[in-house]
Amino acid sequence: MERTIQKRLSVGGGGGEGGGDGASWVTVDVYGDPDAPGLVIVPGAMADARAWRDVATAIEAWDSVAVVNRRGRAPSGPLTDAYSLRTEVADLGVVLDEFSGTEALFGWSYGGLIALLAADERPLRQVVAYEPVIRPFGLDVLPDLKAAEAAEDWDAVVGIVHRRIAGVDAAVVESLRADRETWDALCRLARPAYAELAALYGPPLPDEPARRADRVDLIVGGSNQGRAPYGTSFDDVARRVPRAGVHVLPGQGHMAHLEGPGELGRLISALAAADR
């Protein structure tokens, strides 16, 4: 499928440029038939809708795939001072209202948690989450992320996320830094990173999320099974959703949407087929 339209939706009580009182906006990239019920994708931190285009075009189980560009990343609006996980769930609710008849909801990483929480508030046929994160994920780096954000040192934020959270090898980080265009894009995506990680430590989360979903599927990359931080956080989520089906994407890690988009798209499609 190819991208057909991009929609802009007002969220948080409005869509004004100032973003006051939590008001902002999100854009949604739609692939395939914009009038057909299909799949909604919720990316996580350090990613935007554009990063998911190869997965969206690889999915064949639905006539449409809508990829949310969450607030905090262009061309969507600001997080605003009132930002929290509740903000994200409410924003996603606006998207689901716009795409009524959505057959399945998919979330990656932080977006996976958002998707599971959304399925606690409204009935959904199917929710799929790839390596969703939950506290105590990233707790040890919160103070340093906060200091880097206060200094508007986005270079430092990218370094903290890649080296201290994701455990990326220093040589790989330096190769990314050497590509100015790539590094600048990462620095732009890093701006909401502290607020998003801090949101995990807001009000207590449900003991068992996604209670209103008919079916829940959780996916872990084969390279991350049982390994901190993503595999162990995945296990924490899986324990909270004991009725979920657990699936492994062989040979992939947390960045499967970039490193194996075709394989991820086929697995998501297969899970949909199994539900029908």
UniProtKB/TrEMBL annotation:
UniProt keywords, alphabetically: Hydrolase
Keyword Hydrolase: yes
Gly residues biased stretches: 11-20
Region annotation (Disordered) ranges: 1-20
SUPFAM superfamilies: alpha/beta-Hydrolases
Zinc listed as a keyword: no
Domain AB hydrolase-1 intervals: 39-263
InterPro entries: AB_hydrolase_1, AB_hydrolase_fold
UniProt GO molecular function: hydrolase activity
Protein name as catalogued: Alpha/beta hydrolase
Source organism: Streptomyces durocortorensis
Top-level taxonomy: Bacteria, Bacillati, Actinomycetota, Actinomycetes, Kitasatosporales
